[in-house]
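During the reporting period the student researcher (J.K.) took over the structure-prediction task from the postdoctoral fellow and processed the backlog of single-chain submissions. One of the processed entries is reproduced below for the supervisory committee.
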Amino acid sequence: MVEKTIYLPMVFHFHQPVDNFQWVFEDCFKKAYGPLINNIYKFPEVKVTLHFSGNLLEWFLENKPEFIEKLKTMAKRGQIEIIGGGYYEPMFAIIPHRDRIAQMKKLSNLINKEFGLEVKGAWLSERVWEPSYPSFLNEVGLKYIIVDDNHLRSCGLAEDDTFYTYVTEDEGKTLRIFPINEELRYLTPWKPTYLSIDYLRKAADENGDRIALLISDAEKMGVWGTTHEICYVDGFGHHDGDGKKPFIPAFFEQIVNNNWIKSITLSEYMRQHPAKSLLYIPTASYDKMEEWVLPTHIRKKYKKIRKNIKKDEDWKEAYQFLSGGFWRYFLVKYPESNNMHKKMLYVREKLIQIEERLKENSDKALDSEIKGKIDKAWDEIYKAQCNDCYWHGMFGGIYLQFLRFSVYTHLINAEKIIDEVMPVIYPNISSSYISITPLDFNKNSKLDILIESDVLNAYFDPSDGGTLFELDFKPKSYNLLSTLTRWYEAYHKDEKIESNEIMVDRYRKTMFRLRFLHDDVTFEQLQEDKFYEFGDFVNGEFRVTKNEKIKTSAHIELEKVGSIKDPNSDERIPCIITKKIGIEENKILIAIKGKFEEIPGKGEILENIINYIRIAFDLPIFFNGNTENFQWESMELNLKSEKEKELLEPYQFKCSHFKAYDETYDLNFEILLSGSKDLININKFPIIAYVHTDEGYQSIYQGINIAPIFKLDKEFAINLILKIG
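J.K. obtained the following structure tokens:
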């Protein structure tokens, strides 16, 4: 009788976002990375495939030489295979072809240099797959990729079909597909090892070509919850079947002791067994990701429908064909994600233009001087492509404010290199400059206005209330508008929103958004964004009426004809508002002017509006330093208590001057206001988002909002100066 066997390749994925805190690297190494590799090293018979994102591998090379030596030893004895992918863990779906190739080559070259291994497989960030992938993966010599079993469901494949590999094709280029085993993923390390062994025994057969691919984040084996104790500490493992022995060594022993389980790397399996068949996979990710990407109101319905279908005996067969959204929709769901992505595309296009200019240059010495700087700029762009903060699901993602800040820092770094190179290749261009560019920056078919200089970038969206949505202070590589709106999420409880335990915003948190509100609106209502809007300027479309440079300054004017509602009736009075914006060096000068149309017979209505309606606007800012060291002051206030001096402490005051300071970056943000005979009512409060993360629900700081409120008149004018430095 032929013994039943099954192959068990194991893949561990090691990743940290670019610019994550160093203590996180150390903590993960102590709890998971180090213990996991030590245990693999102790079991030479157990073969493992590893994936490291490039920035984390760099960190190991610089800080953990013993760890690297163990990897090299295991590589020499043929115990491990290391697969590649994008160096900084980008989402291939949203980066250009050239960058995909460059990032993959960069990681493959590092692996080959350090370990002498040829890279044959690729890791896909968050298992996001699109049908065009085989052609570009082939271009860098990769032979296989790993996909989720969810990818195969819509192809009509059942669980038994996931015990085999497949081949797919694009433009005649083929690629082997390894499906991940869902059952093993959920069993390890949460359940005793014998349950995994029992599952493998049932899946084994006499043909000897079946494969059950176990894949896990390395962090799952030691960082998540109590997994460090479960995986590595005697007495904390599973009592049932393992006698409290740590999961990882117990599991490896099971593999060694059961000869019918064949430990193998993915490349070895490919050499020994052909694919079962040709397969074409639609756009897919893992099932949770396809749920998370859906618009919030749809996501709630989808989750309920999916759960009901899975439980319903008459419908559960249809479950495998039920798929959710498309990963790229995160760029629509979160405008802040789209902002980062389009900024990345915009900056890289500037760099490409410089490369094109260099091709026309015959000065080889000049070419050599600039090439190193261009390579550095490209690497800054690649770092900004790290996927973690472009989406949100079970993990903080885009809500992790320091990761958004990191993206902008690297993109501004690239811009500064471009600024440095431009006068060298264009001798008529000064290193000190200012420009105005009308451009569909957000790719929504509407023109934005980009004002850029060697000191500031200020990006305006006339179609969204004439607001400022990006403000970069280039000397510090610092985007002061890397704020995040408190978006409504599917996991928010409606009753908690109604009771103000959770605050959500109606509009994106950008600067100079005009709000017309009743004079009885409370401070709490302002913070909660729960008040009636009497005007139609808040997100209306402004017309660009002026766009000019004068020496070292740039000037634009935005105008909208709208109306304000009477607080006592449905009557509305027309009003024209202009925003005049001037930028010079580190200053932004804003003049907001409004004029009501005086309509015969409606003077009383106009008087009602002037007496009871106020105009306010949002001035959100984002500081990235240590929140405990944020400070603020005003020339007109004497702040006595330490609590009053805290920037994140909600506070109402009357003045015309406000100054905030980020001590970590030695950065000041100053506001000077005028336009009222009296001191101006200013409201200051933190932007705090209530977020579901892998560590449970958290309130995460996303910025500070300053909201000045002014009285109206038949003709009114508000002036402010923003100064950064």
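The committee noted the following: DSSP finds 21 helices and 29 strands in the chain.
J.K. will present the remaining backlog at the next meeting.
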